[in-house]
Amino acid sequence: MTSVRRLLALPEWSGQVRVLAGAAGLDAQVGSVRPVAGPVAGPGAADPVAADELVVVTGPMETADWHVDALLRRVVDAGGAGVLVPSGAPTATLLLADRLGLALLGATGDPLELLVAARLLLAAPELDRARLVLAAHRAFDDRTHTPETVVRILRDLIGAPVALLDDRGRPLAGDLTAAAAVRVGEFVPQRADLPDGVLLAHPALLPGPARPAYWLAAELTGTAAARADVVPPALAVAAAAVQRWLLAHRLELERDARARTALLGDLLRLDGEPSAQLRRRVADAGWQVGGWNIGIRIGATSTFDIVTGTAEISRVLRAEGIDAVVVEHGDGWTGWVSFAQEPTAARVRALAARLRAANRKLQGSISDHMGVGRPHPWPDGLAGTVAEATDAARLAATRPESGFFLHVDQLGMAQLLLEWTRTDTFEPAARALLAPLRDQPGDLVRTLSAYLDAESSIAETAAVLGVHRNTVTARIDRIERLLGVNLTHRDERLALHLACRTVDLPER
Q1: Shared domain check, 107 and 130
Q2: What pLDDT sits at residue 304?
Q3: What is the structure's pLDDT at 502?
Q4: What is the DSSP letter of 317?
Q5: Rounded mean pLDDT for each run of 10 residues along the chain, 508 residues in total
Q6: What pLDDT is attached to residue 128?
Q7: Do 203 and 175 share a structural domain?
Q8: Alpha-carbon Rg of the chain, whole angstroms?
Q9: What CATH code is carried by the domain that includes residue 199?
Q10: Position 36 in a domain
Q11: Which ranges carry the CdaR GGDEF-like domain (predicted)?
């Protein structure tokens, strides 16, 4: 047994049969299919319609033939599943089919071929699945296909929208309206019911604990949803093709990453003028190390795959107007921005502000912390600015109040003063100074620390804390009232800044 809707989803019926009327009867069960030469020669009293039978008119017929109406009534009275005619029908006949709730189908292809396809489905329900799987194996042979090619081939095979999704559910190739229904955290084949159909998804996994998972998903709507039990094996074959491409692409990425890391290591060990061979390797990589360089160090989150993250980091930096070299290095990324001439202090501050904005975008998903060095000239100065960026990044990893971001220019004298604040004399005084802020709503100590780290910028403090600017303004006003201070006085700001560091660091 199958349904009229399932027959409409057959590849041989798709595009060859349309529903003329009686859509309410599309879920009627079909137990057999009977051909008749025409409405006049249709089943009569001697040869009645069987229950659950679909009658297929194979011969020519007049569009306005009243015998079609009579055939519809005989099929309904016998409990039949529907009628397929080789042409259209008049309005009165369509209204009759709708009133009877009987599926009336119109064929544009050869009715006999449609009849054969329907009987094959009834006789061997697994044949449709087997043919689709075989077609998928033939299409996705041992060659490596790009994701776009895989999506296009599978879409043509199943006649439904298909997309490849990344580990956050965003389309990499193709497009789906219901991509959000894929549960990207569950690495098993999935099926989700949609208001007008079914969403099927199959994972394409790379080996390794930190490797991202990709999802091949198909959205079956309308009559295509009736093949929801047929498509999953073909989806698995296509997902294997995606996996082959991912493995090949991964090998290429890792090879390039090893070459870049080795070249970076040679540059960082440089203690004089680079050799001609090293200059050639740098030029082949498209890197710029002449002029003045500002180092960047980005620490990766513990679960992120460093090799695949380089392109995303470069994209986010470009979106902030930063043209930087980014190289996989250790447990994160090392990079730098080059200037033809020594950058002014204003240009350095502007670059640091853009890098801070990029770090906020990367924070939590890719980046764990970021540090920025000072400008150093020529290739032999690259190691110096990278070392400064690495030190700043190491400190940034322990400073949530700074947004896990530090520019080395923010250190210096304040860092020396911080060492003094770690004495037994200063710590009790610092705790007493900040005591009025304890147990107050709004996390006032952290707000004050972030505000002072941000050089009294309300907007930057709000971005670091993830709250509205008005909230920060109200908290700063409360802090000044509770402590009896004026944060526009630099001496009071310095004392409170050191007190915040003293109280905050041991607790963290």
Answers
A1: no
A2: 81
A3: 78
A4: H
A5: 89 89 92 82 64 88 74 90 87 91 91 90 87 92 89 93 89 88 88 92 77 85 87 94 89 91 93 87 90 95 84 94 94 94 92 94 88 90 91 85 82 51 65 86 89 90 92 94 88 82 61
A6: 86
A7: yes
A8: 35
A9: 3.30.450.40
A10: yes
A11: 272-395
Pair 298, 198 in one domain:
no
Beta carbons within 8 Å of 445's beta carbon, 6+ residues apart: 434, 437, 438, 500, 503, 504
**Are residues 356 and 368 located together in one domain of the fold?**
yes
Q: Domain range for residue 144?
A: 126-246
- Asked whether residue 74 is domain-assigned, the answer is yes
How much is the pTM?
0.61
Closest CA relative to residue 372, chosen from 322, 414, 421: 322
394 to each of 178, 276, 299, 370, 416, how far by Cα in Å? 42, 34, 9, 8, 17
Is there a domain that residue 393 lies in? no
Tokens of 17: 């049969």
CA-to-CA distance for 282 and 293, rounded, in angstroms?
A: 15
Same domain, 357 and 274: yes
Q: What is the pLDDT of residue 472?
A: 94
In a domain, 430, yes or no: yes
CA distances from 190 to 62, 232, 398, 468 (A): 48, 9, 40, 39
